[in-house]
Amino acid sequence: MAPPASETAAVVDGGDGQQQRQAGGFGQTITGIIRIAVFCYFASKFFSPKQKPSDPSKPSHLMSNLFQRGEPMDMWFYLSEHEKFNDFGNEGALIWHETNLPYAVWKPESTRTFSMTYYPSEALKNNGSLYAHVFFARSGFPIDPSDPEYQPLNCFGRTHPVATYLPKRKADKKKSLLGNPKDSDESNVEVEEVDGKDSDLKDEGPVEWVSYWKPNVTINLVDDFTRYPQHGVPPNIDPYLLVEPSTVNYYPTVFFNEFWLLRDKLILINETVSELPFNLEVSPISMTKWQLFQQIDQSFQIHRSYGSMLDDESDELKRVFLEGNPYLLGVTMFVSMLHSVFDFLAFKNDIQFWNKNKSMEGLSAKSVVLNFICQFIIFLYLLDNDTSWMILASSGVGVCIEFWKIGKAMRIEVDRSGMIPRLRFHDRESYASNKTKEYDDIAIKFLSYVLLLLVVGFSIYSLAYERHKSWYSWILSSLTSCVYMFGFIMMCPQLFINYKLKSVAHLPWRQMTYKFLNTIIDDLFAFVIKMPMLHRLSVFRDDVIFLIYLYQRWVYPVDKTRVNEFGFGGEDESVDTKKISDQEDDKKTN
């Protein structure tokens, strides 16, 4: 593909909060997209619609390629503001001309590049259209139908738009809640919307569209010599196949490859633009690679339709492959497959741990409540920012599980004495009758002071220097940012309890190990995937906490008499094991 243009205008970003949500499930996205792409590719190969039985008296015609491998061709590249082109005598419209271009030959001379600076017309600056018309012909033959030597079997062409149209927001709804005039001016800046699927554009009248320039145009000639049945062309190939009606054979397939053209490389065309970079390339492409590009694009569309991928997440994934180290990408793809396995195992052991838990001795009940509050804040933040339903469903399930944990860690009663029933939470006897509650209260007391100062300080900063849609949005975004930055404080009460008890015996190490393996994978993605520095730092907080747990396990002796998370003591387990072994010895003796 043509090299990316350096003079490109970046599209306005949607905010750090949106990037944080995009980076959250990127490991699963990479695995899912690759899996769907490979599945669709082989499904199209093996399960494509079969040709209906034909009449034996009328044998089916097999279409073949009109050109031979290695046959030299000439190419003409025109730019025109009209979709249909026949002005072949206009030298000003001819941008690029190549001769003796071998077809479907994988040699350096098969790839040609050309770079230039295009000066847009006044019509193009005012949302006008511009099309690229590329024509190929056997060397020495003309492409102009008015030429006496013109032969339709020797030439073919394809048209493709160079300027694309994208909707834009009329105004950014975010504003300075304190009435800062500078921020109010910034809120009126029009922001480009990538796919035009933003809910803010609903019920606001007609949508205004603006044109964007494609700085890179890649023309691929598909290396395809398959003999297709006349009425049995695969559906993924049929739209691109150009059939010559007299011979019922097909011309070489021309594919305008925009797979690696990222959205932030598009350049806004307006009255202030005087020149535009234009990089062209013509080269062959294999049938497998062409189909793979199509299947991956199709998988992107499937993910968007199901709400499992945001609009610009596909570009971020492509950027990983363009800018990432190939060895690091290979490791990332491998560990991303393991991420889902570890995530499932951690989830299973977490449910199993709390389901079998009979005693809260040595465990922080208030940390469970704080975790629920944090999950609920994140859920409200995602709901306020119009997140896809799949991410909302996943977050909602997490909130329900955290609330279920509260029921296992505390005793919940429904108070019906008033007009409105209320929930009352009471400490379990195993938690309140020992030093665990005392140490938990001390830890929460001091940590809440620190957390309160951080939340208040960050909220004031966000109110003074950032823009928000409403006061409600400011509260949610401030709390969510504090959860990202200071969420590790919620894990500290358990560390404090272990420190005061001088023991970490029978902590759920299996569950913690799976979660720690997942944090290692998240650390890897933090270096590979483009994300805000705030979110990149937040992925390391679990590592610090787990390292402290390892240090406590090394420093403190293992107290086998302490009741574990399942309500059993270590000595009881050893006694039971000894009894079982004694019974087996007796059986062998008898």
TrEMBL record:
Start and end residues of each stretch annotated as Disordered: 1-23, 173-200, 571-590
GO cellular component: endomembrane system; membrane
Compartments where located: Membrane
TM stretches of this protein: 327-347, 368-383, 389-407, 446-465, 471-492
Membrane topology: Multi-pass membrane protein
The keyword Membrane is assigned to this record: yes
Sequence ranges of Basic and acidic residues compositional bias: 575-590
Main location: membrane
Entry keyword Membrane: yes
Keywords: Membrane, Transmembrane, Transmembrane helix
PANTHER family the record matches: CLEFT LIP AND PALATE ASSOCIATED TRANSMEMBRANE PROTEIN-RELATED, LIPID SCRAMBLASE CLPTM1L
The protein's name in its UniProt record: Cleft lip and palate transmembrane 1
Organism the protein comes from: Arabidopsis suecica
